[in-house]
Write the structure tokens for this entry.
Amino acid sequence: MPEHHFIKTVVSGRYVIRQPSDEKPGRLFMGFHGYGQVAEDELAILEGIAGTSGWMCCSVEALHPFYQGKGMVGANWMTSRNRELMIEENVSYVNAVITELYGKYPLQDSLVYHGFSMGAAMAVRAALLGGHEHTAVMLLGGNIPPEHEKLEKLGKVHIARGNTDRLYTRKEFERDRKRLEDSGVSFEHCCFPGGHEANEKYLESAGMFLEQLC
């Protein structure tokens, strides 16, 4: 039988930011994109949410790029292979990005995580396993990872789903809502007309949630 070994190496991660519109120290809004997307896709969602002009919007790109159709590049957070190791490395990666941002820019302590689709699980892991204090977590069209039983550390949560979303089903959405309720987490939910996307109705609801955090 073959022996399996792992070795630590160094890879470069990529993130994109949009700085606050004024000179005051901004809050930090961290985003995680979906499967096959890149950092700019998630940044567009963060920027589209009403009331984010005073926030530094940062979108972190997954460490595993691949070619899609027509030569387009997308990225993936992880697969089921070596799952626990990939989770550990992804969380360490996000911690490093946040530490760098706080070292480079005048930011307030307020930190909010946002995840779309596959990135929703990454937002939850960053909140529960990461090394930085946060205020809230916003989840759009993606599951709360099943391995986490205690969700109290998530803080305030905004969880959303498009009514015609076939990737994040109604059953999965209701299960995640129940998990939040059972954990005593303060959360708001949003079911909007649309599919697996961040449309105008979602952006409006997400903006109202953010406004309440100020």
